[in-house]
């Protein structure tokens, strides 16, 4: 039985559009994989202090007879074939192939998390995926891709730090307000200040696969160090706020 999967492509080294085109062709030429739809390509802001220059991103939909683990392995093989070098985590790269979702499977293992744990807030994934699969339902969020994208358009985005270790809250709040204007981000430290008009992001101390009963409240999955670092929060918020720019003169060829 075949499965439907979504794979995000991105990179910022070399001729990225050509490398992405090669990656799409290699996927389509792979045994038991057929590319059935492709988004456009988007220019996106780099996320992380070591990420380098502007990225290009897109999403493809494939039909495959491979199971998720073998499909992920094939993605890694293509990355290696196209010159991906993993020297710096979240650093510049020629090509990145991330398995975003496979049917409605929910998987949490050492090597694979499905759906991708960051896909619900990353505009550089949501925008291209909305182009080809707007009605796809996130199996954990019970929300469509286009609805997840639309929720990120609210301004200001409300970030609730009340669940963090209180001794870190003042410094986190200061750094966030320094990096983002009040027009784009509102940082609250008491969840009683949350409003019903806009979704509120609740930052937790520890990673959790469970979601709040109230779907208007989202959990940011950040490492416990013992509290989310300021840079982690900056990176997550930036990936949610920065709007990708679609390139109008480039389309993938199959």
Count of strand segments: 14
Radius of gyration: 18 Å
User: Domains counted in the coordinates: how many?
Assistant: 2
Quote the average pLDDT: 83
Record keyword descriptors for this entry.
6-stranded antiparallel beta sheet, 4-stranded parallel beta sheet, alpha+beta, 254 residues, Alpha-Beta Plaits
Question: What does this molecule look like?
Answer:
With 254 residues, the chain is of the alpha+beta class. The chain has two domains: 3-139, 2-Layer Sandwich (Alpha-Beta Plaits); 157-240. 27% of the residues lie in helices and 24% in strands. It is built from six helices and 14 strands. The protein has helices spanning 16-29, 68-81, 123-133, 145-151, 169-179, 230-241; strands at 3-11, 33-38, 42-44, 55-64, 96-102, 107-108, 113-114, 137-138, 143-144, 157-160, 185-188, 200-203, 217-220, 245-246. The strands form four sheets. Strands 1, 2, 3, 4, 5 and 14 form a six-stranded antiparallel β-sheet that branches. It has a four-stranded parallel β-sheet with strand order 11-10-12-13, covered by helices on one side. The protein has a two-stranded antiparallel sheet with strand order 6-7. α3 packs across α4 (145-151). The longest helix has 14 residues, at 16-29. The protein is globular, with a radius of gyration of 18 Å.
Briefly, what is this?
The chain is of the alpha+beta class and about 250 residues long. It has helices spanning about 15-30, 70-80, 125-135, 145-150, 170-180, 230-240, and strands at about 5-10, 35-40, 40-45, 55-65, 95-100, 105-110, 115, 135-140, 145, 155-160, 185-190, 200-205, 215-220, 245.
């Amino acid at each position: 039985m075949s499965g439907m999967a979504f794979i995000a492509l991105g990179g910022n080294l070399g001729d990225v559009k050509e490398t992405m085109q090669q990656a799409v062709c290699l996927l389509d030429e792979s045994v038991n994989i057929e590319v059935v739809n492709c988004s456009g390509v988007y220019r996106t802001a780099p996320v992380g202090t070591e990420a380098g220059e502007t990225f290009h991103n897109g999403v493809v939909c494939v039909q495959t007879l491979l199971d998720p683990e073998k499909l992920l392995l094939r993605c890694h093989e293509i990355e290696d074939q196209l010159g991906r070098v993993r020297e710096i985590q979240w650093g510049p790269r020629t090509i990145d192939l991330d398995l975003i979702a496979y049917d409605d499977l929910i998987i949490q293992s050492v090597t694979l998390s499905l759906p991708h744990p960051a896909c619900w807030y990353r505009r550089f994934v949501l925008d291209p995926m909305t182009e080809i699969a707007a009605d796809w339902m996130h199996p954990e969020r019970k929300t469509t891709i286009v609805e997840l994208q639309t929720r990120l358009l609210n301004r200001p985005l409300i970030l609730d730090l009340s669940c963090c270790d209180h001794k870190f809250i003042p410094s986190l709040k200061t750094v966030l307000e320094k990096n983002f204007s009040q027009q784009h981000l509102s940082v609250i430290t008491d969840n009683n200040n949350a409003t019903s008009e806009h979704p509120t992001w609740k930052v937790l101390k520890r990673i959790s696969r469970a979601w709040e009963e109230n779907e208007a409240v989202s959990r940011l999955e950040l490492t416990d160090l013992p509290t989310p670092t300021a840079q982690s929060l900056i990176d997550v918020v930036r990936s949610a706020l920065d709007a990708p720019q679609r390139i109008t003169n480039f389309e993938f060829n199959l």
